[in-house]
Amino acid sequence: MVHGTGRRIRKATSAEGAGESGLAKLIELHALNSFGDMLITIALASTIFFSVPTGEARGRVALYLLITMAPFAVLAPVVGPLLDRLPHGRRAAMAMSMLARAVLAWTMAGVISGGGIALYPEALGVLVASKAYGVVRSVVVPRLLPSRLSLVKANSRVTLAGLLATGVAAAVGGVLHLIGPSWPLRGAFLVFVIGTLMAFHLPHAVDSAKGEQRAVLHAEVHGEGSHLIHHKPPPVKASLRTVGPSVILALRAMSAMKWLVGFLVMFLAFLLRSEPIGGLRPTLALGLVALAAGTGNALGSVLGSWLRTRGPEPTITAMLLLATCATAASALWYGVVTVIVVAGTAGLAASLGKLALDALIQRDVPEAVRTSAFARSETLMQVSWVGGGAVGILLPLNGVLGLSVAAAVVGLMLLWTIRSLFRVGLRRRPAAPRIA
């Protein structure tokens, strides 16, 4: 049975040329990465959140945000530029992110039962390593792209594999937690050790930077037109105008949606635990919200594979509009149904919006610099999630107030996005960004 299941998984990941190009190995590695991350999440959540009263849990999570998320918000913008300086070491970078999490998971297993402050710096290390992997993975996908797949469909397949692995890991992690609080971390250690070995078995094309150049997303080259610069440019003032207006539009919209996801994760986790809605038990309410978010995320990946690159600008604007309407409706008619709907909608919008952003980068950023652009966009998305989570933990636990604030934030970004959409127009030809 195990052998047959393995053959079916390998057949699914290798479809449409993914096996020949090496993308199938990346899909399997990403599934393993998501599996390990979920095991660590279960261990941390059970210690920091579920094992203590709500008031104390809020303080612990606030401390977690302060010690882990705040330094990460400072470190994350550095990840992309650092990876640009290591174009030939992507397999090693992915392996090191796996190995670092394996070591940290084993170390955390020894202190998880006490839940002391020593746990938090180790959690920061896990977070940084995980997000570094995410940036490298986004950079690597174009290097393994089969001729029969679009970049959007390939990213959709990788994301969907990660979501399925996360669902399986949730069940496995729950069983391991019944044995003891440290056992999910021991399981994560084993998973990441295997992942370290798998990373080195990725194709050599992952480390080939032939024809690639750096994409200047934060520098404007004065005195140059929108063309390729082959010489080293002089020092310039920072700007976000060098990748074209459509990509900037998508980055702003996706930042708002990632902010909303981070906000909902933190805010609803505490709100539903302290003030259950619809007469549901806190654990059941949280489970329904998590299920809705996961379902929306998976549906977004499936829709992204179907839509491919059709109208990325209106697609990402429509997703932001959908998220805004759902959040506003949940604030006006606060209840169990609207909360579940907003969680599912946020998952759908963020997933499909990210694929639309990928399509814009594929269309408007030349292939020679596309991997660099992916690295920077991924970093921006992670920082936006951190910002939303911080707001979610700081707001009072009032459902109408919190969701109203969220609706106002994404609503303002929606207006800005619509204004930019009319200025950009629905161009079919790609923009020519400045490159250095």
List the helices and strands and how they pair.
Layout: H1 2-13, H2 18-21, H3 23-50, H4 54-84, H5 90-109, H6 119-140, H7 151-179, H8 183-200, H9 245-274, H10 282-307, H11 312-332, H12 336-364, H13 370-394, H14 399-424
Helix pairs in contact: 3-7, 3-8, 4-6, 4-13, 5-6, 5-8, 6-13, 7-10, 7-12, 9-10, 9-11, 9-12, 9-13, 9-14, 10-12, 11-12, 11-14
Brief overview:
The protein is mainly α and about 425 residues long.
- N-to-C order of helices and strands: HHHHHHHHHHHHHH
Main structural class: mainly alpha
- Please give the count of helices: 14
Low-confidence stretches: 217-241, 428-436
Report helical residue fraction.
over 70%
The radius of gyration computed from the alpha-carbon positions, rounded to a whole number of angstroms, is 21 Å
Outline = globular
Main sheet: strands, sense, barrel: none
How far do the termini sit from each other?
A: 53 Å
What features would you highlight for this structure?
mainly alpha; disordered C terminus; 436 residues
Describe this structure in words.
There is one protein chain. With 436 residues, this protein is mostly helical. It contains 14 helices and no strands. Helix 4 (54-84) packs antiparallel against helix 13 (370-394), helix 6 runs antiparallel to helix 13 (370-394) and helix 7 (151-179) crosses helix 12 (336-364). Residues 217-241 and 428-436 have low confidence and may be disordered.
